[in-house]
Design brief:
Layout lengths: L10 E6 L6 E6 L2 E6 L5 H14 E7 L9 H21 L3 E4 L1 H8 L9 H15 L7 H16 L7 H5 L2
Parallel strand pairs: 1-4, 4-5
Antiparallel strand pairs: 1-2, 2-3
Helix pairs in contact: 1-2, 3-5, 4-5
């Protein structure tokens, strides 16, 4: 795992807040890093988010809520995780933005789920992330966080990072 304290300054932090399958992604010219957060303790999560936020110029967190048919215990755990991530961003002092899934997915070039099976939609997101970041082996758990970070780059009026940018060429 990449030491979060060694990431280059000025990148964008993307946060997929899922409690079991959440992930953080940090992108900047010449650098791509991902950190799954599902199995981290609260202390480990705090250390990781604060270290990455210290180097980031911007953080993007997916604005989420409980889903229909989600159990009470899992909805509570999900909400607790989401709240903890928001609090860590606020405490870090980094500029951060919340964005609805339908908005970032539409603007990054992947139609929102609406009617698609969840697995099909997740595969489409992973394929898009792999296309945008061909030098990385993108796993399903990392795709949303990478795409959120890329949306952060695009939404702030900067051109998307290219393969050459990411490779530092």
């Amino acid at each position: 795992m990449i030491d979060p304290k060694s990431v280059p300054r000025g990148g964008v932090l993307g946060i997929d807040p899922g409690s079991a399958s959440g992930c953080l992604a940090y992108i900047s010219p010449g650098f791509i890093g991902t950190w799954p957060i599902g199995d981290l303790t609260e202390r480990e999560l705090a250390d990781l988010v604060l270290a990455l936020a210290k180097s980031a110029r911007l953080a993007i967190i997916e604005q989420v809520g409980a889903m229909p048919k989600q159990g009470i215990a899992s909805a509570f755990k999900f909400g607790r995780n989401y709240g903890a991530l928001r609090a860590l961003l606020a405490a870090s002092g980094v500029v951060w933005v919340e964005v609805l899934p339908a908005k970032w997915q539409r603007e990054i070039g992947c139609a929102p789920r609406a009617g698609k099976a969840k697995g099909d939609h997740k595969r489409a997101l992973r394929a898009l992330a792999q296309q945008l970041f061909p030098s990385a082996k993108v796993r399903a758990v990392e795709a949303d966080a990478l795409l959120l970070a890329q949306w952060g780059v695009i939404s702030r009026g900067q051109p998307p990072l290219t393969l050459d940018d990411l490779l530092g060429l």
